Amino acid sequence: MKVIKTINLTKKFGDFIANDNINLEIEKGSITAIMGENGAGKTTLMNMFYGLSKPTSGELLINGKKANFKSPQDAIKCGLGMVHQHFKLVPGLTVFENILLGTEITAGPFIDTMKEIKEVSKLITEYKFELNPKDKVSDISIGAKQRVEILKMLYRKVDILIFDEPTAVLTPQEVDELLQSFRELKKQGKTIILITHKLREIMEVSDEVIVIKKGKIVGNVKTSKTNPKELANMMVGRDVVLDVSKREKDFSTSKVLYKVENLKTENDLGKTVVDNISFEIREGEILGVCGVEGNGQSELVKLLTGLMEKTEGKVFLNGEDITGMWPDELRKKGLAFIPEDRYAQGLCRDMSLSDNIIAGYHSGEKYCSFGLLKRKEITKTRDELIDFYDIRISEREGNISSLSGGNAQKVIIAREFDADPKVIIASQPTRGVDIGSIEFIYKKILELREKGKGILLVSSELSEIMSLSDRIIVMYKGKIVGQVDGKTATKEKLGLLMAGVR
Amino acid sequence: MTKNFKERFLIPAFNTLLPVISALFLGGIIIFAIGDNPFKTYGVMISKSLFTVDGILKTLHFASPLILTGLAIAITFKANVFNMGVEGQMLLGAFFSGVFGFSFDLPPLLHISLCLIVGVITGILFALIPAFLKAFFKVNEMVVTLMLNYAAVEITRYLAQGVFRNPASGDVATYTINSSAMFNKVGKNITAFFLISILVFIFIYILMKKSKLGYEITAIGKNEEFAKASGMRVYRKIIYIMMISGGISGLAGAGWMMSEKYRYTTSFSGNPGIGWDGMLIALLGAHNPVGVLIAAIFYAALKTGSDYINLYTNVPKDIVGVIQGILILFLSIKFINDKTDFLGRMRQRLKSIRGSKGATRI
Prior knowledge:
Chain A is α/β, with parallel strands linked by helices. Chain A has 2 domains: 2-236, P-loop containing nucleotide triphosphate hydrolases (Rossmann fold, 3-Layer(aba) Sandwich); 256-498, 3-Layer(aba) Sandwich (Rossmann fold), CATH 3.40.50.300. Chain A has a 6-stranded mixed sheet with strand order 6-9-10-3-11-12, with helices on both faces. Chain A has a 6-stranded mixed sheet with strand order 18-21-22-15-23-24, with helices on both faces. Chain B has a domain at 53-303: Orthogonal Bundle (ABC transporter involved in vitamin B12 uptake, BtuC), CATH 1.10.3470. By secondary structure, chain B is an all-alpha fold.
């Protein structure tokens, strides 16, 4: 039976067609992966399924009946639920309280806690989830939080589950557990729609793959009859090479470019979040930093980029003490940054491309003389960078907000790499970026490596860390718990270290 | 290009004009209710205040301090800093330039320059109080600047009643400044003060649109985290911005003292006051220097026009106050909507209620 069927489903935003005559069918009890580059229209399509937006034309049939959702509540009533990438949980409440939030079981004016726990426990064992209903949500792991989100939907008797990039925040082991849960859910007759652009997960768990490009379905294949290469090709429209050939290089004789000694800091609550971190990066070396999110990587990057103050420790560039310098001073010394949050620290959405391209370098002679900005020079540089870094923008004078995620990231890459830095601190350089752009960014990073620059690569994407890094350090609770050679690193080895197991 | 033009000029222009047109429309209904012809009344107002030599000069004269206070506020709002203390900074600037004006006897050029500089410095010093509190102790500048206005009013009143009081005057007033500190009237009404305002306008225009500081101010206003990550010393910049704003406010007061009032009285600034008017003008001009210039002249034209209404029609001149009041109301709606998009949210809410026929739980 087809649980979801769309007939010429179309969504337009003004002149822009986000979804163009989408015709698809989803089998009951199957796992369907929907993949596509950023801005291809995956999210728009799912939003229509989930009642967050309305189609311009066309029909959506759920279980053979025409659906006309006005809100997510309607969708849930119809048996269709979504697990978002960012969890919507109350940290101070327990697991069962979160699951039953809004539909509490009451006995008179009171909440029947005993019955609630029983209900939730029943649900947990039914789906073989590893979860204690009485744990506080703030104390459980990210993977467990995701399971709570899934249970929230299951409790509301949802048969079709949509997952929006569910593995972005998980450790490799947690990803495996999630995929296992998918199989269990499938066994119980649930239908799963998985939005992702990670080929491994698609190949491992899905039955069918639908590839969307520029709002249209460009591929609809059985997973068993395809391979990752073909899928990537369908998505981007050409062959994609993400595998970086590993190289053997002995760095012991290379010059130390960047050195961090016993760096330590506390967050606003006085908790030590970066604890005694030391490392060095040599010329032409890529040092990968990995760890489950929230184990001090963000704070480490903030420290190194001048956005946070250390309590102890020192940082050296070429032997010169650069501890505690401001971002602009660091940039002048020859550092470049790719910040973790593109739209918070990296770019200003409401400013033009030109204004973003000079950010951080706007005091330099190239763009500024006697306190006035050299607009002509800036426009020239902007046009050069747009061409050189292949930034796709419809209006050159337009704001950053009109760019897709991948192209916005290219603006940062263009700005930082154009300054010819000695050391690059790159944090999550490919987060939420499509495969085509990832390939491009890898290429640029490797080019810099060849030029003898030092690169610190912080990423939660293990495959990225493993394929690019010469050396990998793993962070856990603010400390370095292990160092692995890039050549010999495996997912399992890193995964264990990330979980704090030495 | 056409789309860009529409988005960049036509829509903002319409958004700015809408409150003005609405206010004039409501004012027109009131004039009609009084029993007069609104078109004729507005006709008199506009033609006399803008299209006669006397009228336009008078309008530009009134506009001079308003351009300055409008700019003083606009520049801080651009950085998402709210200097609500323009009135106070203006008053203190006026008062101390007045003190220097009657205490010394110098060659005119020197004397005028001295008094203007005193006004600017007083404004800067007074603006530094909230700036430092904000930069070093994270005290909300909006509250501090707002409250300091009342402190400024009381300080100047105390001084005007005490040490600097002119005993010959029946009112609470200081001595009149010496003629060497007065701007000469060119023709009947306008003085060199207008020229100074225009120079400041050009300075601020270049500062905002072309300079590094202007770029940084915009960045701070739009995304503070981004500004910090780009190496801008946000709090230092906030102090600069407050100093510029305070300096311009002080200049506005000094200039008004030396070109119009000549002595400090408790009603120096009028009602609602040059600083408060500046706030409205900045809002009307969408915090854009050119917008502020136009809005200030429009606002001054209302003021000049009110005198002519009395002469040529039966409508009391207070109608202009009514129109100003309505304008403030409409502009506040626009301001709040810009900040919170409550109209958009209301529309959404209505849509969802209508859509689900009351089934949605709110």
